[in-house]
Amino acid sequence: MPAEKSRILVVAAHPDDELLGCGATVARQSARGSTIWSLVLGEGITSRKGLGSPQKARALKKLQDDSRKANAVVGVKKLVLKDFADNKFDSVPRLELVHAIEEVVCAFKPDTVYTHSSTDLNIDHQIVCEAVKTACRPLPGSPVRHILSFEIPSATEWRFDSAKGFSPNVFVDVSRFLDKKLKALAAYKGEMRPFPHPRSEKYIRALAAVRGGQAGLPAAEAFSLIRSVSA
Ligand SMILES: [Zn+2]
Question: Are 29 and 77 in contact (CB under 8 A)?
Fold first, then answer.
């Protein structure tokens, strides 16, 4: 899951989440003939301190350019960027987020949606997960069959709450696509960090090895299934 030639929508809170969460799976599905769109709801700049308006505009343009390059590396056909303020999704009327997602679902008609886990430490991630569930509720005729949540290094494991922790039950062999994910992440200049930060190449490779080992695979991305409906 998803099948070959699926229509896959990735809904992320911040630029680079879409690749950290499922970049290798996207690359694998793209190679198998699926069509993939990414929707990134947050602008990715607002929470950085000390930026004046011209600096912010330049930084935003650079980040958007990086996003396009990075998503192209893994075969994303269309990248939709919104400008909700980072780490403030709890101050946005939920309906605005839901409508932004619905608009893209309506235009693209995905059968599979990947998004954040509601268990993440990051508030925007939690809210995006809930907004996706609302935007993709299983009304008769809804195109969305499968919704899966991914894990984001430095947001999912930092919840430190075993009762509400991320517990994956879907594993995708990404051994041939992990390098492509890391190449795409390298296009996000300034987002990756040196190890031992979780947003580092060493950590991402280690996580893929652990998730692979859980499922008898050389390297995997892991997901938690939120909903699957077979018509
Ligand atoms: Zn994020």
Answer: no
pLDDT at 182: 98
Buried b (16+ CB within 10 A) or exposed e, 120-133: bebebbbbbbbbbb
Q: How far apart (Å, rounded) are the C-alpha atoms in residues 115 and 17?
A: 9
Task: Band the pLDDT of 1: cuts 50, 70, 90.
Answer: low
- CA 230 / ligand 1 centre spacing (Å): 30
Ion ligand 1 contact residues with beta carbon within 5 A: 13-14, 17
* CATH code reported for the domain at 7-228: 3.40.50.10320
Domain boundaries, the chain: 7-228
Residue that is written with structure tokens 């030639």 in the block: 5
Instruction: Give the distance (Å) from ligand 1 centre to CA of residue 175.
Output: 24
Beta strands in 53-138 (DSSP E): 78-84, 112-115
